[in-house]
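To close the chapter, one final illustration. This time we ask the reader to focus less on the individual chains and more on the assembly as a whole: which components sit near each other, and how the overall shape emerges from the parts.
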Amino acid sequence: MNGFLTVYKKEIRENLRDRRSLFNSVLLGPILFPILFIGLGYFAASKQQEKVEQVLEVPVVGAEHAPNLINFLEQQGVIIKAAPVDPEADVKQQVESVVIRIPEKFPQQWNAGEPAVVEVIADPSRRGSEIPIQKVKLLLRGYGGQIGQLRLQLRGISPSIQSPIMVRDVDLSTPQSRGMLIMIMLPYVLMITAFTGGMHLAVDSTAGEKERKSLEPLLINPVPRWQIMLGKMGATATFAFASLALTLVSFRFAFPLLPTGALGVDLHMSMTALAGILLIVTPVVVLAAAMLTTLAALAKSLREAQSYMGLVFMIPMIPSLIFMVNPMTPETWMMTIPMFSQSLLIAEFVRGETVSLLWVALSAGSTLILGVMFAAVAANLFNRPRLVFSS
Amino acid sequence: MIKVTDLHKSFGEVKAVRGISFEARDGEITGLLGPNGAGKTTTLRMLYSLLPPDDGEIRIDGLDPKNDAMAIKRTLGVVPDSRGLYTRMTARENIAYYGKLHGMKNKDIEFRIRELAQTLDMQDFIERRTEGFSQGQRVKVAIARAMIHRPQTVLLDEPSNGLDVMSTRALRHYILSLKEAGHSVILSTHIMQEVAALCDRIVIIAKGRIAADGSADELMRKSGCDSLEDAFVNLIGSEEGLMG
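The assembled structure is written out below.
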């Protein structure tokens, strides 16, 4: 294994001197991602706050049909605006997020004791309009409830007859488990880092070496090619691992800076939790290094290799996206799916649950097996004459 | 000592080498002379086990690359056509890397680098990163890293490509010193003067075949010409690819 060690040490040393390589593994993951997180956190929190505190301004069509309702809304702090000419068009063009329309029949229905129709014109698929819509509906329902109670009392009936069921919330979520944003994003960020951390090195030491015409003389040395491949793959994995560890540590210090109060999240990670997460993700580092080395050995040129690397971002995205769209309860069989199992395990870890050792072992085992398979493919690619002669 | 018998190699439809046989003895410089694309580089690549031959036999100091590829690689010093260096490492680190790949001890590597730096006149730039090296400096580093493990047999593929006059002179001087030290040297080139100045035996290759084989005098006698250049043109039957 002398050849492997020599290649490994040389790649590490050479890439420590490479600014691009360092940028990719030290800057991108460990510094950029936490900053992005904190920034997004603050942004989301302040937007939320703004929406909640914002004075509700609602245009009302046909306000004259229900003066009492309008009075009620105004008492609740709603500013009633003049009726627009075409409320539907205004909502569509996002001039207004919500418009109330009181039809002419309203007084008639009201006086007859029938349910009087009030229309709320809005487009709930617009993300910004959720809160105003909810507020308007809540107010209208509140008014309706009040009037309903009054009517029952007038007829000598207790209003509680209207509520045969009373729902009481018993909240079992821990403060950690409410950190949804982080639970979805953290596994994804870590998976991406496992790939990006060693990406530049993998490309540079394989396709780059071919391009700079130093691969052919290297292969003339009396070292089996699989050892040369393994040295490069090892260096790739080492960079990715360092990048991952740095990212985790910087998240550790970034979390307390997140606006937890605003998000209802109190997330603090102990060093033990960090070590646990690192342990869970390490097999992914090996898999990523093997995949990257395979892709780089497959490429005919540096450019081709770099274009493959765009795809690499997709690989860790898939399991995280599935989890994002459909958060499922982890089960044992899921632990055999590389990268998906790690996403689940990290989420469990962050929630503060105890993670079963069997699950960790299954997840690591299946990921490492796939990694070894990719490494074997890469070793085979290194043995092809085409590795050196691209054209 | 290299003995090659009836070597063949094709890449798909292209028959790069079709029946090459020659011998390169210790203490002699053997020149593979031929126009560009004649099959010289492919022949050399088969000698240093980068490409497996389709057919034919290779013996290097009696060893067969089919069975003893690693042993052969240990006895060979090769300066191939591609001679890229690691630009983020110094000349010394570039050379030492190859020494370590050969399993040499650090002390021995250090000693050898001192020796080679002197012979090849590299003291001025041995500690510098190879980024921005001149062609001549790069060839010197490529030669030093190929020679670090004291190989008995030396293969050089167009070593003077891109060198200026002074560097070429120094290179020729070094190749002659290898011969005097008893190495077996094979040199591929398309430059007539190089062959005339250096080689004891000349193997003329054209279109993947041996066109002629012998000393400069023998070749002139065979072709009935009184200059090596005329003999060469006469023997390969065209002037194609002779520039340079």
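DSSP finds 15 helices and four strands in chain A. Chain A touches chain B at residues 2-3, 6-7, 10, 13-14, 17-18, 209, 212-224, 385, 388 (CB under 8 Å). With these observations in hand, you are ready for the problems at the end of the chapter.
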